[in-house]
Amino acid sequence: MQKIAVLGAGISGLATAYYLKKSFPSSEIKIFESEKSAGGKISTRTEKEFLFEQGPRGVRPSGKGRHFLQFVREIGLWEKLVPSNKEAKIRYLFLDGKLEKLPTNPLEAITSKTTDGAIGAVLKDLKTPQKDNENESIREFIERRFGQKIADNLIDPVISGIYAGDISKLSASETIFFLTEPERDFGGVIKGLIKASKSKPDIEESFGEIEKSALVTFKGGMQTLVSKLVEILGENLSLGTKICSLKKNENKIEVTYGSEIFVADFVVSTIPAFVLNEILDGFDTKLNSLLEKIVYAPITVSSLGFEKNVNSLTGFGYLVPHKENQAILGGLWNDQIFDGISPKNKSSFTVMLGGACSENFDSISESEFTETALEATQKHLGFSEKPSVKFSKVWSKGIPQYNVGHKKIVEEIQTVLKDENLVISGNFIGGVSVIDCIKNAKLLAEKYKI
Ligand SMILES: Cc1cc2nc3c(=O)[nH]c(=O)nc-3n(C[C@H](O)[C@H](O)[C@H](O)COP(=O)(O)OP(=O)(O)OC[C@H]3O[C@@H](n4cnc5c(N)ncnc54)[C@H](O)[C@@H]3O)c2cc1C
Questions:
Q1: pLDDT of residue 450
Q2: Regarding the domain delimited by 117-196, which CATH topology (the fold level of the hierarchy) does it fall under?
Q3: 3-41+223-294+402-448 in CATH: which number?
Q4: Atom 14 of ligand 1, residue of closest alpha carbon
Q5: What is the pTM of this model?
Q6: How far is the C-alpha of 352 from the C-alpha of 390, rounded, in Å?
C-alpha cells in the first residue's frame, strides 16, 4: 500500500491514521477533513473561564476503557488525564416530577423510588426461560426479562444518555450486549452476569487507581486529545478539504477534493454513512442502499454557566425518562464532575435535548433550544438566577442508531467490500463510544498489516 487515504478527522479518522502510520511507516498517508479543525463530534468550547463539552465529555476508564488508557499512554498524554470527582458517582433520575437519587449502596436501594420494582424484576429474570434475543429491541428484551417499569424508568433514560435513542427501535444485542450475552450464554441475565464477572478483561494490564473513577477527561477537556493527535499527525492532515467523490478506477480509488485528485491504493472512510453514500462512484450500488438504511438521532447540547453556585444538589447530574414528558433528556453538573471545568463556586450545566423520539427537531432554532434548556434546569433544580453564559450546539445527525437489523446491514456492507480496497469504519460500525472508535482503529490497522 503506497498511498492511503483516510476520510474524516474525527476520533475514528485520527486514531485510524495514527495506527496505520505505525503499521505502514513507508506509506504516504493523507487524512482528509472537510472542516477547518479536526475532532468531529469532539468539540470543547471555553467561554468566560467555563469549559463546555459540546460532544463527548469523557471516557469510562474501567473494563474496555483500558484500550483508551493504553492509547493515551502511548501517545504521551498520560500526565494530562483528569479523573472525575467522587461526587460523579452520585446520579439522579427525574421521576414523577422530581429528582430522585439513584442508590449508591444496597441500603439506599431498599428505600429508593428509582429501584421500585427491582426485586420483582430480579425474580422475573431468574424465572424467565432463555430465548433467542438477537433480533429484539431493547424494550422487548428488557420488558421480557425485567418488566415494563425497569424499561420505562431506568433503561429508557440511560439509553437516551448514550445513544439519544428510542428503546423500541434500538437493537438489544447491538447496544446492551452486556445483558443479552449473559442470557444467550448462560440462560439468564443475572445468572450470566455472576459468571461473566469472573471472566478475563480484553487487556490484562491494569492501569491502577484511575480505573476506579467514573469518567476521565484531560486538562483542557477532550479537545486536548484531538490537539495531541493533530500534533502527531500534522504532516498527514489536510483540513478544510471536503471529499466530493470517491471513484473506483481499476485497482485504485480516486479521492476528489475541489479540483484535485489523490489516487489511493487503499481508502478508509470514517465519515458519516449519509455523506459516504453521496460520494461513492463506481462501487456496487448495493452499498448505497445499505448506507441509506443507517439512521442518526438528532441531539442538541446546551451549555449554561452561572456566576454563583445555584445547584443545591451534589452529583453527576440526572436523566429524564420519556414518560415524564419533559423538554430535555437530561442535565449534567459539569463543575462537580471534574475539577478545573468551571471557576470555584460557579455552576456549569450541560443539558441534552432532542433524540430519536423528538418531534419537529429541525424546526427548533438554536436559541429556542437554549431557552428550553435554561427553563427546564431552573424548574428541575428550583432556582431563578440567570446565566452569564448560554449557547447551544445542534447536531442534527448526531449519533448513529444501532437499530434492530443494524448488524445485518454491517455484515452486508462488509460482504460487498470483501474484494475492494475501500474499508468503511467510524462510529456507525463497531460502537459509538470514543473507546470503540479507538479500539476499532487499532484492530483495523492490525488486520491489514502484512
Ligand atoms: C452530543 C454527544 C455526546 C457524546 N458523548 C459521549 C461521551 O461522553 N463519551 C463517549 O465515549 N462518546 C460520546 N459520544 C459519541 C462519540 O463522541 C462519537 O461517536 C465519536 O466522537 C464519533 O467519532 P467519529 O470520528 O467516528 O465521527 P465524527 O466525529 O462524526 O467524525 C467524522 C468526521 O468526518 C468529517 N467529514 C464529513 N464529511 C466529510 C467529507 N465529505 N470530506 C472530509 N471529511 C468529512 C466530519 O467533519 C468529521 O470531522 C457523544 C456523541 C455526541 C454527538
A1: 62
A2: protoporphyrinogen ix oxidase, domain 3 (1.10.3110)
A3: 3.50.50.60
A4: 56
A5: 0.96
A6: 13
Pocket lining for ligand 1, CB < 6 angstroms? 7-13, 32-35, 40-42, 55-59, 242-243, 270-272, 275, 299, 301, 395, 398-399, 426-427, 432-435, 437
8 A C-beta contact, residue 348 and residue 49: no
What whole-number distance in Å separates Cα of residue 80 and Cα of residue 224?
8
Provide CATH 3.50.50.60 ranges for the chain: 3-41+223-294+402-448
- Write down the pLDDT at residue 379: 98
Ligand 1 geometric centre to CA of 36 (Å): 15
pLDDT tens, 137-194? 999 999 999 999 999 999 999 999 999 999 999 999 999 999 999 999 999 999 999 9
Within the chain, all domains assigned CATH 1.10.3110.10 are found at 117-196
Residues 6+ apart with CB under 8 A from 404: 135, 136, 137, 169, 170, 171
DSSP for 61-120 reads: -STTHHHHHHHHHHTT-GGGEEEPPGGGG-EEEEETTEEEEPPSSHHHHHH-GGGTTHHH
Percent of the chain with pLDDT over 90: 90
